[in-house]
Amino acid sequence: MIKVENKMNYVHLFEEYEHSKPVIYSALEGQYDCDLYVNDEYKPEFAILFTQFDFHFVTGNKETNSLVSDLRDIIFRKHLKLNNLKEAILVTPDDKWQGVLKEVFKGYSDIIDRRCVYKLNQDKFKVIYDNTDFNCGLNFSINHESEFNSKIPYLTSRLKDNNKTISYCSGFMLGAGHAEIDVKTDDLYRQKGYGKLASLLLIKELLDHKIEPDWCCWESKDASKKLAHSIGFEKVNELIVYIWVEEVNGKL
């Protein structure tokens, strides 16, 4: 497969993705570094996008004869090995690709997991936001930040106890008018609703900027699923992803 530099020339290949838009397009649009490979530079039939966050995306014509062998070669014999990576999570547009990934991963890993995809019901969100009491004795702020080597600033809400951040919510991946949501609360302050407050503040700011928030989490993360529902997100999809982990599967 061929590594291409002008990634925006190949954006159309990822149009079949109805999920993971901020992850994919934050890479293709240049917010974060990534590597994009196609099987043909001028008339590509399929492609794979390697992001810096261990989530990688395949797309194209899954009936192409060389698809399985080409993907096995670029994933396991080249990209992961040459970059000394320890983990890879492969994502597809839909479940019709599962047979392909099963063959690609054969002999390398049999780890499969599920990720829950949520879409914000903005009417529900508005009702929840309008009926939330934000007077909790903490300081709130909305900041522009640029961690993870982001080339552009993204919005983050922070709740602080004095000068200590005890909970934050960020839209750290931006692309195609969407933002991927990340929430974290200090262990000592959990179960107090601070993650919900931080999320509500950040999402309101994103909506005011005409950015659609996306929420995705592992199926086993009950707290994340509960939080998503509590602020107006509704589950719309469940992705099957294939995973390779050096610590479990061994060195390549």
Based on the model shown, name its key terms.
elongated, twelve-stranded mixed beta sheet, alpha+beta, 12 strands, 27% helix, 2 domains, Aminopeptidase, 252 residues, single chain, 7 helices
Helical run tally: 7
Order of helices and strands: EHEEEHEHEHEEEEHEHEH
In spatial order, strands of the major sheet run 1-2-3-4-5-12-6-11-10-9-8-7
**Would you count the extended β strands for me?**
12
Structural class assignment? alpha+beta
Sheet with the most strands, sense and barrel status: 12 strands, mixed
Could you name the CATH topology of the largest domain? Aminopeptidase
Distance between the termini: 19 Å
* Name given to the CATH homologous superfamily of the largest domain: GNAT acetyltransferase-like
Percent of residues in beta strands? 35-45%
State the domain count. Answer: 2
Q: What CATH architecture label of the largest domain applies?
A: 3-Layer(aba) Sandwich
Ranges with pLDDT <50 over ≥5 residues?
Answer: none
- Approximate shape: elongated
Helix content: 25-40%
Radius of gyration computed on alpha carbons: 19 Å
The CATH class of the largest domain is identified as Alpha Beta
